[in-house]
User: Fold these one by one.
Assistant:
Number 1:
Amino acid sequence: MRFVIVTGMSGGGKSTVLKMLEDAGFYCVDNLPVSLIEKFVELISVPNSEVQKVALGIDVRADQDFKETTAIISDLKKRGYGLEILFMEADDEVLIKRYKETRRIHPLAAEGRVEDGVKKERKVLDKIRKKADYVIDSTNLLTRELKAELDRIFINNEEYNSLIVTVMSFGFKHGIPSDADLVFDVRFLPNPFYIEKLKHLTGQDKDVSDYVMSFPEAHTFLDKLKDMLEFLIPNYVNEGKYRLVVAIGCTGGKHRSVTLTNALYDRMKDAGNYGIKVFHRDISVPGK
């Protein structure tokens, strides 16, 4: 039997994950009272049970300080129950934005500020997050990308670590991305903006892509960047990093950076047991 505990930050995507796992054939239960968790696991795990895949959603609503919940999960794992813990994560700013958009009350905010509830919850969940088998950061994940990550772990049973790499294009004239871990400047390449027939296209268009990649320096840059990332990523994984943002910038974020971001993604998408996604921040921003 496969038994998955789905927990994490409120607003991080637990409900969405449970729906996706249910569609994948898991028997899902959400927000079970703490006093029933142990008995539920024992009953559902009896030999020859028809239920072979179970997902149990747990959050701070069931146990406001989470100490009892953490203790029960630890005890069940010591007794030999093969529980896996999936922790859903997101940046504080994103969690606050999600709560404000839905006008829901954060479980630890009561009548106070959402910001305070998020901060308190992060402290409460710190121990179980460190014990999680999988950490998925939903900050920039599209629904289909989240489903792909879940499929990789729970459907395809691929070897998995919790690192998600985002390869992002941007324009320096619009500012360096605040969440970037690594920033690379590709303004050393000729700018397609100054070629009339390419000016109003982007790196998503073949003509622009072919032009940028016609320069040997573009290929050399990609070779060296891929080589460096293949060295860095395993070390980031060993340090417990769960998100890496690689930002590639040109002047306006439409031509060179988009082309090279796509090219790097194509080279790395099947390279390792980590999630990887592509994001073009400034491709639709007016101007150069």
Note: The CA atoms of residues 226 and 268 lie 7 Å apart.
Number 2:
Amino acid sequence: MRSKKAIINSIAGIGYEIIAIICGLILPRLILLFFGSKYNGITSSISQFLSCVALMKAGIGGVSRAALYKALANKDEKKLSQIVRATQLFMNKVAFAFTIFVVIFSVLYSTFLSSEFSHIFTVTLIIIISISTFGEYYFGFTYEVLLSADQKQYVFSIIRIITTILNTLVASILIYLGFGILTVKLGSTLVFLLNPLLIRAYAKRNYNIDNSVDPDMGLLEQRWDAVGHEVANFVNTNTDIIILTIFSNVLFVSVYTVYNTVIMGIKKVIKTFINGFSAAFGEMYAKNEIDLMEENFKIYELIVFTLASVIFPTTTVMFVPYAKLYTSGVTDIEYAQPLFSYIITIACAFGCIRTPYQDVVSVAGHFKQTRNGSFMEAIINICISIIGVMKFGLIGVAIGTLVANVFRTVQYVIYMSKNILIRSTYLFIKHTSIFLSIMIAVNLIMNNYLNLKCETVSEWVFSASIACLLSILLTGLTNYIFYRNDTKKLIIKFLNVLNRKNT
């Protein structure tokens, strides 16, 4: 049943991420063509600054999910209601604090960081962009955590597929009809407000949540142990654009956004594909099925490294040709940045391959034991990025992200291997070495021997297909040589799930 839920969640999640990537490429392209890089840069910059408020809810999602695993496994509806109540009360405070932050931020940003736009325009844009974030905090976050813990991520994946497509249609129509950027963003905000409202409605209908019980306020005390993890995640996700905004300008923010949109899309696809495994491991840990966890972790680890070995080598080869095609006709800044594309892709790869180790630490509730590593990751990223951006620009912030991601990945691997699932760290080194070897081999073959043209979209698609096929062949070969038994177990497990589904 766990495997079946994981596969359903993965299929629905991947479907959403594919839609999100496609739609995420369409709208920024239209904004670049109709409004220019400055408008694309300022909207991205504002969104990243507003995301700072996410730090206020840091830790609550992790500890709530960890507590919900046990309540759901034991079918304890009272405890479930207490956890949901505590989480929602906390998120109501976050939503209120977010409102105050928006007011202060709109004044400061329009005064000090937006000299190229009028105060009224900037303040209005900030308020419009902030509405959907407020809705997420006040209406949807608590119930999204509940659905995730119950291995029902497919519910909000389906909801997001619908709203993402609707948003693209609405925004595109508004752009082609000649409306300004403020109207376009308002249309998007109103559509995305449907997400938290529909998630809340589904949870209320399908769970017996008793709002009369006393909330489990002890949960809020535990959240501080998980804060470091979310701070690190926030820093790695948002620091680069914030630093570029402060120490550079919105044109470089626009360049970064073009690459980062793809990187974040790839990261989400991989994490969505494996998202269902986290809840499954959470249930195993709640039932103290450690031997089963160790057996399934090898398969989980193999899946993640297999995905990484196919996706990231292809990305490194095709990234710059994509950027050239995507920004064709845009001449206010150079979007072809080869070295930057390599560094940011490898940084993303390390952020993804650490997921299995991070998930096991999270479901075990070992937030306090690993929080110092999270703080170190944030400090490393900020310090190197600030120094790097002043000397190397875009490449500097990418280096900061790469070093921080490598550090945190290694820290997770060492801690998990010594304290939860006892195993040799050599296994991680072996996986990583094979992954990096495949990436180097694909780049050498594609750039030195095939050297395919990418001057049109059809040529780019053909070249990307060849790069992907080459990555698949090399990954399949290495899996057969080095992980034959684990690969067989993975195939058997998948076939068993399909047979149960057909039955």
Note: The mean pLDDT is 83.
Number 3:
Amino acid sequence: MDNKFNNMLKEFLENTNAKSEKELDEKLQEFIQKYNAGEIEYENTILDDAYELLEKAENASSKTQAIKYAKKAYDMCPACFDALLLQVHLEDNPLKMWKLLEEGLKVEKR
């Protein structure tokens, strides 16, 4: 599941007062119907936007383009650590790979 869908579902369920498993199941069915009909309003977060760029990176036609999208996603939102991991995975130079990972881990610790 993508980040945006998870956030939409979480937001929807936070606004429900289901008291039983049956009520929760009914609310989930309602969510699915509204989601499929495009009736759920949701404003993207910066993290959502970063994950959309990361998806472009994963589907890019070239390694260079993939790295460009992944870097842009991580620069946009360092909380999108998956973007950094993709950059590391695509990096051919072991020294650059370790440097990227080390810098990313410093940011994560903060």
Note: DSSP finds six helices and no strands in the chain.
Number 4:
Amino acid sequence: MRFVVVTGMSGAGKLTAQKMLEDMGYYCVDNLPVQLIVKFAELLYDSERDKVVLGIDVRADQSFDEVKQALDEIKEKGYGYEMLFLDASNKTLLKRYKETRRNHPLSMGGRVEEGIDRERMILEETKANADYVIDTSHLLTRELREELENIFIKNENYKSLMVNITSFGFKHGILQDADLVFDVRFLPNPYYVDELKQKTGNDKEVQDFVLQFEETEVFLNKIKDLLDFLIPNYIKEGKNQLVIGVGCTGGKHRSVTLANEIYKALKEDDQEYGVTLNHRDIGN
């Protein structure tokens, strides 16, 4: 039997992940009272179900230490489980809470930021001990589904690091949550070529223009060498999310073209990490 405990930061997508797993044939139970967790595991292993998900989270009405004790007791009794931890950056979580106008379970009527900080401290050890950590900050719904399918249906190797490549325009503001930022404004700008001005880096004509220069080729080779060195070391240190920002003036031509090329290069030899691509300002 495959028993999966799903937990993580509030707003990171736990319920979404559980619904996806339910669609994949898992029997899902969410937010059992802590006193019933051990009993649930005992009944589970006496049943005929072969795929089960238990959702747990931090709530104001119970101590998460009690939840951890219950999970420890489950293991002591020989009932094995895997833990999936859903995470997201504080900025992303705050944005989601503002959009939904919901209160954080630990904000106690105060600021959402304080609730997020408290929850992250409480869950620090749980995240460190999780079997799988998925950062949803830059994941589309379909990308989250693909990641869950790879782990829990196809049984493929878990990709502990998700690399997100995002193009942006400096005039719209620098990418705030980027780990690495590359400024490609040193390249000739297609914006000043009349027939290319209204096109983007997703169009072949713009790509041909940007990629024709020797500087572009040298830049891409150096970026690839740098990432070939950095990514394995990030994985070794347990990093879950790497955000690479590629910026030009407006975020439509050069940055889009270069972000696409970096994405393709990483995708070709992608073994231990996942890769996603986003063009933040292409529609501005």
Note: Residues 214-236 form the longest helix (23 residues).
